[in-house]
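We modelled the chain as a single entity of 110 amino acids. Its sequence is:
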Amino acid sequence: MAQTYGCLESGVKESDIAGTRIVSSKMSKTSVEKITVRDKLKEIGARCVRGKLIDGKGRQVRFYFLQGCWGNPPADYLEIMERQRKELENLKRTYTVIEMTCNISGLAIP
């Protein structure tokens, strides 16, 4: 039976797309592989302990929804991206952070 994670943060489902990666085939075709929250949790050995999501090293897991998938970025996009960088840096000091992509298609954003 597959592992389930009943202690996920509200608003996050195991089937949500956490990221993507480009995969090349033998016939030089590329495709986008979607990585789910479940895939990431299995990768880090996560489990529920007393209602909290803990990775294989005993650190609590947090999800961070990335910004920056703008077709036409807002005027203050540099400030937004810098604030995001600082927030991620601070979270990573205490938690294992799963960065949730804002671009689930995996395709380049113009």
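As a brief sanity check on the tokenised model: The chain has one domain: 17-100. The two ends are 42 Å apart (CA to CA).
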